[in-house]
């Protein structure tokens, strides 16, 4: 690797860390919604694939820790993965231990990264020789994944019932584009459909304001007040093992380790499942909340990192919710990447290892320090200086632009249709993971009904 490329890799890691540190502090910034479009833009810019991968790994690490900060400081969910922490965070906040809350979450993230990266690389190397066999069953695995995630979710029957109708929606739009000659028969629209699913809940909210009754219900004359506690910086240590207890660190490490083997499952589902199992071992309410937060912070890192690393390094196809959603641009980003030629095919084993380790180490080092030292200050700045609506509006605008690039003007309305339907289904309990897997499995599902 020459000096110029090395400099690009380092700058990509630092840029992702800075960008997603700020974005992560904005409440409601769903992981897929903020990772997928920007990663796609980086891919389409034409930079070297190793730069893209380093950027994405740093983005994951930064976002997943910083998304927890609004939850820990003011009780607002940063992203989907921080939502399970809310109840535990509020217990600790009522006890006046907000600062301790932040520090332990930062340590949990550090332990999650340190555990997940080497474990995921090891698993990837072990299954790589069998990648072709796994790929042969990819479509079936997507269907099984959609069914499994439905059974793990809250709205089990609804999710199961809507898999086939959703598959019909995705494939019918593709067929319309083919029949009208908008896209050639050998092209499949996937990326913008991804993004339609991602911005669905937000799109539903925005469209609902087009009706007068909804606008009137939302109108208020009072400002929303948010109390951000002041935190003392005296006698502060950065040694993780002086911040958390031995049994807390062991719980986080073990949960992170075992979660990497379950990379095909929903990160949110695994985070809730393992986090609650670990917390139940504690009888004291505060100890239970503290242990759960540390473990969930570690799992937020391990579930996403393993889902990306194993699919990118070993398989070359997205088989995990993390790879299908936030990491989708690493696999499908026409004209740069396709399912037959993507980042998996563009890098060597050594380049994969270098990019992943560099991106993870640089990012976790910076965000670990920033979260311990400046979490409350950054939260205050973001909540008071950066309009939430402007950020979300920017992402929706980017989604519509990419929809136009994918299949022209008609696809903007197609993506709006997908967003509206998927957003309402999301509200009813059919989560992103099921919808993403159904999108990938749609051709196979409908082929089962052909004579």
Our measurement of the CA-to-CA distance between the termini, rounded to an integer number of angstroms, reads 53 Å
Q: Could you give a short account of the major beta sheet?
A: none
- Average per-residue pLDDT, rounded, comes to 83
Low-confidence stretches: none
Count the helices. How many? 21
Q: Could you say which structural class the secondary elements and strand pairing correspond to?
A: mainly alpha
* Structure summary, number of beta strands: 0
- What overall geometry do the principal axes of the alpha carbons give? globular
Question: How much is the radius of gyration in Å?
Answer: 21 Å
The percentage of residues in β strands lies in under 5%
Oligomer: single chain
Topology pattern, helix = H, strand = E: HHHHHHHHHHHHHHHHHHHHH
Helix content: over 70%
């Amino acid at each position: 690797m020459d000096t110029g490329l090395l400099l690009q890799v380092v700058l990509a890691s630092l840029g992702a860390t800075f960008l997603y540190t700020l974005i992560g502090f904005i409440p409601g910034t769903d992981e897929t919604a903020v990772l997928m479009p920007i990663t796609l833009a980086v891919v389409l810019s034409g930079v070297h694939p190793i730069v893209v991968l380093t950027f994405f790994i740093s983005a994951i690490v930064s976002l997943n820790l910083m998304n927890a900060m609004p939850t820990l400081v003011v009780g607002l969910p940063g992203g989907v993965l921080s939502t399970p922490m809310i109840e535990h965070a509020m217990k600790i906040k009522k006890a006046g231990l907000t600062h301790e809350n932040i520090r332990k979450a930062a340590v949990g993230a550090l332990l999650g990264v340190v555990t997940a990266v080497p474990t995921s690389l090891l698993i990837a190397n072990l299954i790589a020789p069998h990648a072709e066999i796994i790929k042969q069953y990819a479509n079936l695995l997507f269907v099984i994944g959609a069914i499994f995630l439905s059974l793990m979710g809250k709205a089990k029957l609804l999710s199961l019932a809507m898999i086939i109708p959703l598959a019909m929606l995705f494939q019918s739009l593709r067929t319309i584009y083919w029949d009208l000659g908008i896209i050639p028969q050998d092209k499949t629209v996937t990326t913008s459909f991804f993004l339609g699913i991602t911005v669905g809940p937000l799109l539903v909210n925005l469209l609902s304001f087009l009706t007068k009754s909804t606008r009137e219900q939302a109108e208020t004359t009072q400002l929303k007040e948010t109390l951000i506690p002041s935190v003392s910086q005296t006698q502060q240590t950065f040694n993780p093992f002086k911040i958390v207890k031995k049994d807390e660190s062991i719980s986080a490490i073990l949960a992170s380790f075992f979660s990497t083997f379950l990379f095909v499952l929903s990160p949110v589902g695994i985070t809730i499942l393992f986090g609650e199992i670990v917390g139940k071992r504690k009888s004291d309410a505060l100890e239970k909340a503290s242990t759960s937060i540390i473990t969930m912070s570690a799992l937020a890192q391990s579930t996403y990192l393993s889902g990306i690393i194993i699919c990118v390094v070993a398989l070359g196809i997205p088989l995990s919710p993390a790879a299908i959603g936030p990491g989708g641009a690493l696999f499908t980003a026409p004209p740069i990447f396709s399912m037959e030629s993507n980042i998996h095919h563009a890098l060597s084993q050594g380049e994969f290892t270098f990019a992943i380790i560099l991106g993870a180490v640089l990012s976790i080092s910076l965000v670990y320090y920033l979260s311990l030292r400046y979490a409350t200050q950054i939260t205050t700045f973001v909540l008071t200086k950066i309009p939430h609506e402007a950020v979300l509006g920017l992402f929706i605008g980017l989604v519509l632009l990419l929809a136009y690039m994918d299949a022209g003007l008609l696809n903007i309305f197609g993506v709006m249709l997908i967003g509206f339907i998927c957003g309402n289904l999301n509200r009813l309990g059919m989560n992103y993971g099921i919808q993403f897997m159904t999108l990938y499995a749609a051709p196979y599902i409908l082929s089962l009904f052909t004579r």
